[in-house]
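Batch manifest, entry 17 of 40.
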Amino acid sequence: MASVMEDPTLERHFKGHKDAVTCADFNSKHKQLASGSADKTLMIWNLNPKARAFRFFGHKDVITGVQFSPAGDLVVSASQDKTVRLWTPSIKGESMVFKAHTATVRSVSFSHDGQRLVTASDDKSVKVWSVHRQRFVYSLNQHTNWVRCARFSPDSRLIASCGDDRTVRLWDTSTKQCINCFTEYGGSATFVDFNTSGTCIASSGADNTLKIWDIRTNKLLQHYQVHSAGINCFSFHPSGNYLISGSSDSTVKILDLLEGRLIYTLHGHKGPVLTVAFSRGGDFFASGGCDAQVLMWKTNFDYFDYREVLSRHSQRVTPDPPPHLTDIYPRGPHLHSAQSGAIEISPMVADTQTTAPAVIEVGQALYTATTAVNGHANNLPARRIASTSLNPNEDCHSSGQGSTSGSQSGQMGGRREEGEQGMTYPLEMRSDLPMNFSSTLERIVQQLDVLTQTVSVLEERLTLTEDKLKECLFNQSQILLQVRGEERVEEEREGESGSPVASA
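Output type: structure tokens
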């Protein structure tokens, strides 16, 4: 049984974003942390204090979600510019663009095998993408308002999603059907995720609540109302014993799920906390908010090395297997009342002033954004120029001091191939494709672009038609009820007027 040892401590803060930090995630393989911001940039921070940070440009609007792939070799980001970008985290900042949504993309997440992506959008849809084929696969369309978040279960058989229609939905990825719906929210459902075993989901709301459900029995296991404002994000500890949450009340809360109580309140941000994330091993967690800072905390409150614990668990026969789809009952909404519990709050955790790392800006002249149309993306160039890895274990200072200007590629440092000293080549020359073949591909892409726009318009019209049809059916039912009520009143009047004649 784990025991509380020490209070969490603030290890470092990362300053480099020029606007609110909206999302963050740790790399599972390297000592890196990625963050997205309202300043439209993606930053990758090396946890080594002496290593430089990298800022990537490409999105045209606020970045709303970011996540490393399970292998750590890719980073995916979502944005209000209606696109999803799959980045190769090298000094070139190359990315592929996925387009299929017709409105802001609110979240993006890898499946646990790294083969699929799931996105949530203001176009009321949840979409699934293939990473290997670099294309849109299918869409889930039963939400009636903006979808805020979507996540795969650990075995990738289920998807959980939530949104402004005040529902949390559970989807079967094989049948693409909604198999359960939780509706008891007083406001928008802001975030949802599975625990590490996949037997439970947690969801947070704009009504300041956080709820944990057992999806095998559809029962509410725990209900927390420890924040004084809406909860924007949360993250499970790899052990499943703890959960951290970030709120618009400017605090980060740490919950002990075994004892069902709040154990820490962390004050480090000046303004709403928009994102929190545990590292894959659970020894660190990060938080970001409207103060444009990313704070990295050392966990300290559990003495177990969870990398070792998780490796042991993976070698055993799983004592608590993921739920079978037929075990999830009932299918409809199920109402529960809130549960109260004891709350313990620690003193404020002091901030430590650490120096900000040097930042290398990877500008638009230094990466190739190959556009995907209707979910089809061109492959990255086969011949990469100066694709120096951002792994902090490699020497980032091997060829010069490095410039903070993204437009001066000759000063960037890193390895360059022979005969390619800082030059930028067109796509045809980089991929060694003939010019005529390249022009044919370009015409195909243009035709696919037209097809994408047509599909998008049809999808939008279909959504509007469905909404209008629901409104018409509702009005029709109200009219029928009103007519029946009037008929009953008329019958009662006729019965009263005919009664004296019958007695006579």
